[in-house]
Design a protein that fits this description.
By secondary structure, the chain is α+β, with helices and mostly antiparallel strands. The chain contains 22 helices and 22 strands. The protein has an eight-stranded mixed beta sheet.
């Protein structure tokens, strides 16, 4: 018996269907594109149970004759192209002749169609790709396609389908893309009998933008007039202050076709360089028009990936169009955007020296080596860093929530001795104060300093003494004594340890400490009830991801519910989250759940933990108290913290030899 056999036509159709029909959203996309190719000016899309049970697409296009209607469900049967040369310049959305054959192979399909002026229309019924009924019928002009029981005969594909809410959100997203790509077509979307979108079809992209993305999102966009010659770019871009935590709001269209392109994404984000916050992504609705021969759409069955003959020209076109729009708007930003008020819990970076700033007083290398050799408790105490523990708590200058989280990671200090508890008179400016070093006793001061008598050996250990004990216990042959030399840019710590130098990212280190603690202890934050609930507007896919994990979000302090239309109503947020930033934070969490967290509940929890730990961590640019920096440095030097939850290193090491080679020594 031969080992190689020819598959039956039915099995071959099922395999081919898997390339075109991945989920209900794929079916809706193909049917709506067929309606637009047929010249329709009005399209109605209706689904039930996320599209798995029922999909209906109705248009007022040119319709089909009885003979053509039956032939349309054959593989590679199409009215879009005739010869091989037509593939060089494809001007229609569909051209392969595979969509209807693939859809009918994995579902039950009913078709009703009538051409303008015809007395009767055609009605067809297919099950599993086989024609069951064909007859004349009365129906309106245009075409109505009904798809029932998707994947009923392919259980292998059916088990990979997601919840109805997630599949319905994917269908909604596909309809939105078509509405933005073709503002001249009125598109109406109904889910489970409820209308969720209706575009006017007046040919204006701005009208479609308002109808699809909502008024609030649309107000955050600025126009991008037509730019370019061979590749013309026009549309709308988000203002720098309105960028989001994910790329879900980036929509690119080439000759009326929704596409995904890394080149266009890179060009857009390059245009926003130095104009947006780090970790935020611009949104856009950009329509590119070019010669049909300059783009190849025949590279993927779903036709969302295309190739350009000149990728560099594409990059320059998108980049220049975005830059020109941003520069044109730069003179009017102050008049358009609402006034931004800095929150006291989110201090801005200070580039100028203020009298209230706390500075480290460093010691000479000879002093450090002498102290390390003698293993003097006095040298290794935090008093050698030149700061006073009676300084204003860092909570007054930074996020109170971040301070509380950091305090939970550090060992609580015992109360200070009674003789130091009394309030002290105002001190003179401290720059002249130098740390005491072992060795020859310094000259006696002109006046005694009774306010700080030396504690007796039998006295309880001071806070510095506890840190001394911790520092001594950490000193091992593999972990030599270390010294926190200072901080630069309010972001990076400088640690001297033996013959090497460490540069520590304080945000990354604190983020990892938060993540480990939250995961180990089962993080339960305090909640704050919003005075007025917030309506969070997200993309359909993001909204579905959050609704699927509402219980998980409640465990992290968020109380939210479905508000309908893809919106989420937020009632409570964690205590350390600024209510003004709650919407952006939920969008970021949704993006993480979509990319890595939906397959495994534990992975979903970790993704939310990543975001929570990041938001609760000290931010680069914040002014921090030396006590917190000491805790962060100890965690990194001891080896407990090596990488942030995202995999980035928290410290960069440079040996003394490497440093000396830089100076040619």
């Amino acid at each position: 018996m031969p080992k190689i056999q020819t598959l039956s036509p039915h099995v071959a159709d099922l395999i081919a269907a898997g390339e075109v029909v991945e989920r209900p959203a794929s079916v809706v996309k193909e049917l709506v594109e067929n309606s637009i190719d047929a010249g329709a000016t009005s399209v109605i899309v209706e689904i039930q149970a996320g599209g798995m049970r029922y999909i209906r697409v109705t248009d007022n296009g040119c319709g089909m004759e009885m003979e053509d209607a039956a032939r349309a469900f054959l593989r590679h049967a199409t009215s879009k192209i005739r010869t091989e040369y037509d593939l060089e310049a494809i001007g229609t959305l569909g051209f392969r002749g595979e969509a209807l054959a693939a859809i009918s192979a994995v579902s039950r399909v009913e078709l009703m169609t009538r051409t303008p002026g015809a007395d009767f229309g055609a009605s067809l019924l297919l099950e599993g790709g086989e024609l069951r009924r064909q007859e004349e019928t009365g129906c309106p002009e245009g075409t109505t396609m009904i798809v029932r029981d998707l994947f009923y005969n392919t259980p292998a594909r059916l088990k990979f389908m997601k919840r109805d809410a997630a599949e319905g959100a994917a269908v909604f997203s596909a309809v939105q893309h078509q509405a933005l790509a073709h503002p001249e077509v009125s598109i109406r979307f109904l889910r489970d009998g409820k209308e969720e979108m209706l575009t006017p079809g007046d040919g204006k992209l701005q009208s479609a933008l308002y109808a699809v993305l909502g008024r609030e999102t649309a107000l955050g966009f600025l126009p991008c007039p037509g730019y370019g010659e061979e590749i013309r770019v026009e549309g709308y871009l988000s203002r720098p202050a309105c960028c989001r935590g994910t790329r879900a709001c980036q929509h690119f269209f080439v000759n009326g076709r929704y596409v995904k392109s890394r080149t266009m994404t890179a060009a857009l984000e390059e245009a926003y360089r130095n104009q947006k916050m780090v970790g935020r992504f611009p949104g856009c609705v950009l329509r590119l028009t070019c010669k049909l021969s300059a783009v190849d759409v025949n590279v993927h069955p779903a036709k969302t990936e295309v190739k350009f003959t000149n990728e560099k020209q594409l990059f320059e076109a998108v980049y220049n169009a975005a830059r020109s729009a941003l520069e044109r708007e730069s003179g009017h930003v102050a008049a358009v955007l609402p006034e931004q008020k800095a929150s006291p819990a989110r201090p801005q970076r200070q580039d100028t020296v203020t009298p209230n700033q706390t500075f480290f007083k460093t010691m000479t290398s000879e002093q450090y080596r002498a102290g390390a050799a003698n293993a003097s408790p006095v040298l290794r105490s935090t008093a050698r860093l030149g700061y006073d523990r009676t300084v204003t708590p860092w909570q007054a200058a930074t996020s109170p929530s971040a301070a509380a989280l950091l305090a939970r990671t550090a060992r609580p200090a015992p109360p200070a001795p009674e003789e130091t508890a009394a309030p002290e008179p105002p001190r003179a400016p401290r720059p002249e104060r130098r740390p005491e070093m072992p060795g020859p006793a310094p000259e006696a001061p002109a006046e005694p300093r009774p306010e700080r008598p030396a504690p007796a050996r039998e006295a309880p250990p001071a806070p510095e003494a506890e840190l001394v004990t911790a520092r001594e216990s950490e000193a091992t042959p593999d972990t030599p004594l270390w010294r926190l030399a200072g901080e630069v840019f309010h972001t990076y710590l400088i640690v001297e340890q033996g013959d090497k130098l460490l540069l520590i990212d304080k945000h990354a280190a604190h983020e990892r400490m938060n993540f480990d603690r939250m995961k180990a202890e089962g993080y339960t934050p305090m909640r704050q009830v919003l005075l007025s609930p917030q309506v969070v507007k997200l993309s359909p896919a993001e909204s579905a991801a959050l609704l699927e994990y509402l219980e998980l979000l409640r465990g992290f302090g968020f109380e939210a519910e479905d508000f309908g239309g893809g919106d989420i109503l937020l009632r409570e947020v964690p205590d350390y989250v600024d209510p003004d930033e709650a919407s952006a934070l939920l969008g970021e969490i949704a993006g993480r759940l979509l990319t890595a967290g939906t397959a495994d509940p534990s992975a979903a929890r970790d993704e939310v933990l990543h975001t929570m730990a990041c938001k609760a961590a000290i931010k680069g640019g914040w002014e921090s108290d030396p006590a917190e920096l000491e805790v962060l440095a100890r965690a990194v030097v001891s080896g407990r913290v090596r990488y942030c939850p995202h995999g980035r290193p928290v410290a960069i090491e440079m040996t003394r030899g490497q440093l000396e080679r830089q100076f040619g020594r």
